[in-house]
Amino acid sequence: MNSLLGFVLISVLILIVIVQIARVTELAGIRRGDKETQKLTNKRNANYMMWFLAGFMIFCVVSALHYKNYFLGYGPHTAASSHGKLIDSLFNTTLFFTGIVFVATHIALFYFSWKYKEEEGVKAEYIAHDTRLEIIWTAIPAVVMAILVVFGLSAWNEIMADTEDEFIEIEATGYQFAWHLRYPGSDNLLGTRNYKMIDGSNPIGQDWEDIKNHDDLHPGEIVLPVGEKVRVRITARDVLHNFYLPHFRVKMDAVPGMPTYFVFTPEVTTEQYRENLKEYEEYQVPADLEDPEGPQKWEVFNYELACAELCGKGHFSMKRIVKIVERDVYDEWLKEQQPYYMTSIRNTDADPFKGQKLASDSPEEEAPAEEVSEDADIVAMNAESAE
Predict the structure, then answer these.
(1) How many angstroms separate the CA atoms of 187 and 383, rounded?
(2) Is there a smaller number of Cβ atoms within 10 Å at the N or the C end of the chain?
(3) pTM to 2 decimal places
(4) Count of CB atoms within 10 A of residue 30's CB?
């Protein structure tokens, strides 16, 4: 807060100085005459251009070096997934070429503004076109762009290929303004959905007549085992959202009516990532500046799921915690989760099997004997066959 206030005060003082200098210059110009004033102004502005160029380039380099440990792909923020390294490599390749263009064009812009300032007795030369120059500045970008496109397509085809290997499948549904998560239960199958069935008790439109839905889990966070392939079903309930796991380089649109997916393998647990952050002084500071004795930044770090699409005024709140753990910890967490159907739907008016006995019912969850219909055995057999 103090640093921000200091920055504002310094900015105001600099603005006052600039205004006063401009006023003095204006008064001096009135005394000298318009022509002389214009000549001096052009020269001064041309020099300012060069000073600004130098200052701007120094600022870009210094700020990049200063904040590099906060950037994805640098310092402690190397990719935490198997495919992420390929994305970081592609990004660095793109940055190399665009960085050259950035520096070259800015030097040319400000240098030409200085070199070709208005001078007495000098007349600008009119050049309609230069064929050789036009070929050069068309061919070079075309070749560079072709290289980047080939690398990009190769990376895309490798990363976005679906998988037939063994994997864990979960589902994320975006809506204004949160993510609804779904895991398969003991059958390892996600049940069918129908958007027409969405209501207050059925937030994603699960078809409760599909037995596969009966053991599906609705956790409040994403927990995944390290080193195992994960396939995420991604969809949206209202407007366009974007499923974004920045530390894993996972990003995919969530489109209403058009399910998408992303396959990735997390390679770094949450605890391992914290240990990596611990080695950098930027994260050895209190997470809450108002509590200097509290935990440090590296201690409170968590992976997160965010929405990377501007979806409305509550867009900022679309966040879920993501935890990457060892397999035994993941198995224990799964055991603690309760199926949504059994805790929120079973034997309510929304349950198509209300009053009927299911194979998945535990003794204490069974309906009273007088409510059990004659076809309970058939329902139980259907449940067993679905499993």
Answers:
(1) 11
(2) N
(3) 0.79
(4) 10
